[in-house]
Amino acid sequence: MKKWFGYLLGLSLFVLILSGCNSTETDKKSGDTVKVTTTIGQIGDIVKNIGKEHVTVESLMGPGIDPHLYKASQGDITKLSNADIIFYNGLHLEGKMGDIFAKMKSEKPTHPVAEAIPEDMLLVDQANSAAVDPHVWFDIELWKYAVEEVRDGLIEYDPENEADYVKNTEAYLEELTTLQKEAQEQINEIPEESRVLVTAHDAFQYFGQAYGMEVKGLQGLSTDSEYGLRDVQNLVKVLADRNIKAVFIESSISERSINAVVEGAREKGHEVEIGGELFSDAMGAKGSPEGTYTGMYRHNIETIVKALK
Q1: How many CB atoms lie within 10 A of CB 141?
Q2: Which of 27, 37, 131, 180 could serve as 83's disulfide partner, Cβ 3.0–4.6 Å?
Q3: Residues 54, 158: contact at Cβ < 8 Å?
Q4: What residues does 125 pair with on adjacent strands?
């Protein structure tokens, strides 16, 4: 009897151990990828390029979404809560989500990637020296700091796959360097006197600094700012005085503001056309070329050059 009891006890322990092993394998399988939530698609694209098969990425703000005005839904809070790591832009781009990120930072790794850029390389609002321009992804040289911040965040959380993260980052940075050279070559095709970029809001100052273009926006750094008749009149005067032939709409902002400028110029006897749609705060549709950072960037360059050269 004792012998049978000992046998049954041993069998029970074996079953428990085996069960425990199976449970561990299941847990490992479900945790194979790092769950990452980002705000804008540009950051999500970095994570996908660096993390590849090691990450699952969800971006809260899709095509046509304005991050300046974005308010997180309950579903977004759930996505942030379920994430292993959060990457957001920072520099007050996601102005209405500051309190949420502060809370999340106490619970899990939460990285404002644009704040990895040295302060002396950031641009400030000409109308408000306390406000920093958050649209850093338009200067590829600066965006590389964000790429490295994502790399470091993934390595810190998942050191087991460090070699892959480093290798993927090097490849992505090379791709960005190639893109940067292509962009400059194309911008050089625009006559110097025509290198003036007029858009709905002031999102392209880093772009202008990078490629030697003058940038004019009807609204300020944030679409939360208001514009009035005087702003439209001032911009119309610039268009007429500089003989600028094209202005641009943005995918994440209503055309109404730019249409007011076009109409105002026409009333003054200066014909201006819509040069095309640019991606500013949001990328294109998922699965399209513009749904990636490099595709979005190439689209913008080609649209600007075609309209202004």
Answers
A1: 15
A2: 37
A3: yes
A4: 128
Dig out the tokens for 295 from the structure. 């595709």
- pTM of the full structure: 0.85
What structural domains and CATH numbers belong to the chain? 32-183 (3.40.50.1980), 185-308 (3.40.50.1980)
Distance in angstroms (rounded) separating the CA atoms of residues 31 and 106:
22
CB 147 within 8 A of CB 154: no
Q: Which amino acid is at 255?
A: E
- Digit-coded pLDDT (tens) for 45-84: 999 999 999 999 999 999 999 998 899 999 999 999 999 9
Q: Any idea which residue has 């208001």 for tokens? A: 226
Find which of 12-26, 121-135, 280-294 is predicted with most confidence, using mean pLDDT: 280-294
- Would you call 130 helix, strand, or coil by DSSP? strand
Q: What is the pLDDT of residue 24?
A: 31
Q: How far apart are the first and last CA of the chain?
A: 96
